[in-house]
Amino acid sequence: MAMVTTKEMFQKAYDGGYAIGAFNVNNMEIIQGITEAAKDLSAPLILQVSSGARKYANHTYLMKLIEAAVIETGLPIAVHLDHGDTFELCKSCIDGGFTSVMIDGSHHSYEDNVKLTKQVVEYAHDHGVVVEGELGRLEGVEDDVKVEAGQGSYTDPAQVQDFVTRTGVDSLAIAIGTSHGAYKFKPGTKPQLRFDILEDVSKRLPGFPIVLHGASSVIPEFVEMINKYGGNMPDAIGVPEDMLRQAARMAVCKINIDSDLRLAMTGTIRKCFAEHPEQFDPRQYLKPAREAIKDMVAHKIVDVLGCNGKA
Ligand code: G3H
Ligand code: 13P
Ligand code: ZN
């Protein structure tokens, strides 16, 4: 199996009522933890790279690590640019072997978003690469962009048909109340997502794959671990997993998860340091961190995404 686009994955996921996990990767242990879980469960996979991850780890290192994962697992794996913000960045990832890119024009006016997205689609399609666009604006932090609480906006279903037709995008990220990072809902309030918007969008775009960003559930076990071992994240709250499962049964074919990986890794490493202050071999704490990622991703594949056995 080689690196693949998301085209076939999304078609099968849409028809089968499940979603593919799109996990953010930054280093070898994260890639290994995710891909080992997917291999054990025979799950299709999207590994996504933000521009920050690309700056941190270098394009070539990440590509070679992902190539190694394809060889080791034999799985269909899509390599996706997460939150591309310029044509030049998308072009560089396409030229460098990514199979899928996101052009996130959601911070621009509607017309500028259409123009930029269309430009990326034309280049990507000429090179056999698929494109994810975004309509609506999520709150939270992604790379250098911070959307303050109250400054986000839900996707307007009345715009989606026009946007997809004029740009030619292959999938669409929408805003229905999720947000980036570990603080998604106010403590003491009941998390809510606008499933009515998702329903309306899917009626207007029959058979079209929808993407959910900001979809970490901020697993309490890892937040507790971080707080127990010297961290300070008391108000971290994520998207309840039953809501993600419901979205995966609907038109959502791609569910983005980054914060849960960070929490699993950081919680486990904090615990290791606290319990074994004498350790100084990085393998001693990166190995359990990689195991924690593997277990967490296996849980997502089976209990949230429903894509086990679908590779
Ligand atoms: O949506 C953003 C992802 O969590 C990536 O985060 O840009 O800090 O790598 P990053
Ligand atoms: P989380 O912060 O909820 O993990 O969202 C990640 C994401 O949407 C990456 O694009
Ligand atoms: Zn995102």
Care to describe what's here?
- The protein is of the alpha/beta class and 311 residues long.
- 49% of the residues lie in helices and 15% in strands.
- The protein contains twelve helices and ten strands.
- The chain has helices at 7-16, 28-41, 51-57, 59-73, 87-95, 110-126, 157-167, 195-204, 220-228, 241-249, 259-275, 282-305, and strands at residues 20-24, 45-50, 77-84, 100-103, 130-135, 140-142, 145-147, 171-174, 210-212, 252-257.
- The strands form two sheets. An eight-stranded parallel β-barrel has the order 1-2-3-4-5-8-9-10, surrounded by ten helices. The chain has a two-stranded antiparallel ribbon with strand order 6-7.
- Strand 3 (77-84), helix 5 and strand 4 (100-103) form a beta-alpha-beta unit.
- The mean pLDDT is 96.
- The chain binds glyceraldehyde-3-phosphate (G3H), 1,3-dihydroxyacetonephosphate and zinc ion.
- Glyceraldehyde-3-phosphate binds at residues 24, 50, 52-53, 82-83, 142-143, 180, 258.
Characterize this entry briefly.
This protein is an alpha/beta fold and about 300 residues long.
Question: Features of this protein?
Answer:
alpha/beta; single chain; binds 1,3-dihydroxyacetonephosphate; eight-stranded parallel barrel; binds glyceraldehyde-3-phosphate; globular; binds zinc ion
